[in-house]
Amino acid sequence: MNIWDGLKTLVLTLVLYPMLRTLGVQIHSAVTGSYMAGYHSVLLINCPTEQIARDIGRGIMEKRLAACVNIFPRTATMYYWKGEIRDASEILMLVRTRTSLIQRLVAYVKAVHPYDVPEIISFPIDDGSLHYLKWMEDALPDI
After folding, report:
1. Which of 7, 35, 52, 122 has the lowest tally of Cβ within 10 angstroms?
2. Cα-based angle 28, 31, 36 (whole degrees, multiple of 5)
3. What 3-state class would DSSP assign to 98?
4. What average pLDDT does this structure show over 46-52?
5. Cβ contacts of 59-62, under 8 Å, gap ≥ 24
6. What's this model's pTM, rounded to 2 decimal places?
């Protein structure tokens, strides 16, 4: 095998990996009837206003980066900013997505969010209702 064949194999593997991983997870779930921990994640994103949260949430959904976005009413927030404790009211977004989409979702939110350093934190889903997790999988495109 020459260097070009090896390079072609590497590129093909990198291009097909997300699709093959998704297929592997679907086969695993179908055969075992169980969920593969960490395949989906929940993200927390804070926004300064409900309208900004709605706009960001709508963009996330239109770009098919999440299966679902919840927008919670105002929350009281305390945080350090430039060496001082600040108090604010914020809107919390709860976003459910496939773990493989997190970096694309983060890039989108950072591009449109008004904060210099928006809060975007993710947590893997270890377990849950198999019917709900299947719905999430069906709601998200294979990329």
Report:
1. 7
2. 30
3. strand
4. 97
5. 59/108, 59/112, 60/95, 60/105, 60/108, 60/109
6. 0.75
